[in-house]
Amino acid sequence: MTTDILRNHKVNHVALVIDKSGSMKRHETTVIKVVDEFVKGLKDESDALGHETRISLYAFNHEIECLVWDMDVRALPSMKGVYQVYNGATSLIEASVVSLEDLMSEVSQRYGEHSFLQVVWTDGEENSSGYSETGHMHTTPDGYIQDRAQLQRWLKRIQSTMGDLKDNWTSAILVPSSLAKRTAQNYGFPAGNIAVWDADTTQGVEEAIGTVKAAATSFLRGREQGVRGTRNLFAVGQDLSSTEVKANLDALDPGNYLLIPVDQEMSIREFVTRAGHPYRTGCAFYELSKREKVQANKQVAVAEMEGGRMTGQVFSGPAARQLLGLPQTEVTVKPGHNDRYKIFVQSTSVNRKLIPGTKLLVML
Q: What is the pTM of this model?
């Protein structure tokens, strides 16, 4: 007989699948640093929630290598000396499928309440899946060329695998461009589980893992609310609960702020002064309504909703970023759907264009 302790014990299996092809060489040191930080974040969040979190690490170029297998995050050593970049092409589809199939076939879910989170991270596009089976690729002076029939077999395989994922599986990917995002959707990654990162800069690497960290933190907290899997991973605030907000944030004095409806596109300073208030840098918070970069120094606030409308009650405080899973680095996020709360982000720009149909939070 399964005890309540076993039945309710939450076990998270996280698989991080990282590109190690030659173009990632410039980012190797930064990748090691930020993945170490990501793993520490998983450990800290798991400890706080009382979860068991296990991690697998895969690296891929034209070959796929499992570096760490389903290890407790508390025991994982640094990635230094573990992750190394080599020359080679990009077996993106194969790496995605292999890591999923390994977890499906090798991890028992008999005891406990298990969920699986796979995050694939690449700076390029598919050009060599099947190499590990054939042992060779057709090559030209300017790169690798796949056999079309081989590519089609792998495309069908990933689409089938993604289509068959159970409700406790979440598969996500970081890609370097909007074109690559459309390709990832064709593979079967849900649109809400695809994020575009800047593969050209060190800051882009740090932002990318910050995005993953925020998503993973949100995912783990969502597990407390009964979430088993999601098709909208790269969103913030979707799991925010009234209990968490009122226990961790400060209810602001309604006499110290205004929530003003935005009726036309206008720069933030002009909008505030037109409403009859002096504009001070940092006094205005825009409603998070689309994908945005949120800098490390920006404060955030949440406004309470009821019946589809804001009640006028706003909460904020030093713990607000942490509650939303935002790291202390710049991160790209988009708003998740939440019937109870809207997120507002501090603006220090005078020229930010406000979006009609949203609201602006102005501190008096």
A: 0.80
